[in-house]
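Expect chain and fold; see below:
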Amino acid sequence: MGNEAIALGAVHAGVNVVSGYPGTPSTEILETVAKNNDGSVYVEWSVNEKAALEVGAGAAYAGARALVTMKQVGLNVASDPLMSLAYVGVKGGMVIVSADDPGPISSQTEQDTRHFAQFAKLPVFDPSSPEEAYEMIKDAFEYSEKYSTPVLFRPTTRVCHGCASVEVDDNYEKHMPEGFIKDTMRWVIFPRTSYLNHCKIEKRNPEMGSELSSFRFNFISGEGSASKGVVSHGINWAYTKEALAENAGCKLMKISTPNPFPEKLALEFLSGLDEVMCIEELDPVIEKELTYICGKHGLNVKIRGKLDGSVQPAGENTVESVRKVLSGFLGSDCQESEAPKAPELPVRPPVLCAGCPHRASFYAVKQAAKGRKAVFSGDIGCYTLGNAKPLDMVDTCLCMGADVTIAQGIHRVEPDTVNFSFIGDSTFFASGITGVINAVYNQTDIILIVLDNSTTAMTGHQPHPGTGVTMMGDVCEKVSIEKILKAIGLTSVETVNALDLEAGIKAVRSAMDKKGVKAVIMKSPCIAVTKPSKQFTVDNDKCVNCKKCVKELGCPAIVLENGRVKIEKSLCFGCGVCAQVCPCEAISE
């Protein structure tokens, strides 16, 4: 897999320290390093992306080769240290993987990390395949050390999760860090130092762009006699090559380092052309660069792509969409595939798993809040799926940790509203604590519902500070959410079994009658972590077919067969919530 290739490439480049925060599509990179670690590499899941980047920066200050992994929205969290680190620089090679998610398939946004590279004035490498990713990340470390700068590495979902046979080099040398050498003029960021470093960056980047014009993954191919050209990058290069098949009939250019842009190579490509089509995801980064170069050098070349509507402005490109664009641009030079079309996939709405404790938690809060004006602020994680009917328990979702603070903002406008904020255990550690302190400090009436399922579930069940296990395999003291909440000033903190509806409803009702910040921790492990040994069944003699279990829970294990309620054995995990909801006691073990 592409993520495995990136990880092995880093290991074979002599990486010493790897830190990150889980987020699809990047997660398997760090996990692969951990699986292939002979003990010489330090690997950690950090509490969030900011912490991960700062750990990596410290290692790079000491001369180590550091890899930091995250998804594109995670780079937002890490942007504070990133912007300053771009000025301070590094000693050891430091590569920051920010995996973009066109679509988006599993993200809040479709933001393009190439813009972040331009904003931070950092080089960015853009691999087009797992094979290329394996090789390119080694180059990224070398460029980082040569220019004493962090390097962004930007695979997209189809590269991260695509699979290929990759030839790996097992004969590699381990990198030996020099250690930290004190130098306040270098490592302490002062305004005067920042000004001088900014000047150096502005001088360095054009030099780096010139060097990258001959970088092995930036190149021109195809016939030079045609008046039309096509430029692409990343996975879109693979789409373009497949769409054009054997006969391109035009000049092609592949850009693997969109910043600093390889201007010298671009000028060579544009020479003799009348028109260029840019095939890229997600934003018109290359298109704008080529337009700028044409203006700068007085070239009469029409640059086309997203800005003139030739290429779709949002979402993933595909071989089919690229073929359609190039067919219009090149005419008969781009032929439609004769392969039969695959049937459309069935619609599969995202829902909480059968037996998920979050379903019980949402249901308990819903029952407790009946008859009250309430707003349910949600967060990023499995529990975002609580927005689906019949639960319908997520009214807002912005970014990690925002459930707590959004609830505070709504309360200031509608003080008569009961404001609930739902947050998972992993998200609480990552970005929730600050918001809770803010609520305590400003004496805000909110009810914090911590959905503690003892894992980072949505991204693949990674450990976090509350699990008592590190990514290095060490067993450590679990960090107690309850103790943290009490330590920062909460006087009303109650922990209940999420699968005990009566206890959950009682705890929430009690919290609703109190002022200030109240917390109910609803604790029960994710079904993928601990699978219960029991199952439930419907007694048809007792069942009156009211379908309350179906209409109120929405559990995938509860199905209708010939109009009657049935529990599908292959899906039931024995949570028992349906038995507690049934008014006829028709559901039992």
In short: The chain has 21 helices and 20 strands. The radius of gyration is 27 Å.
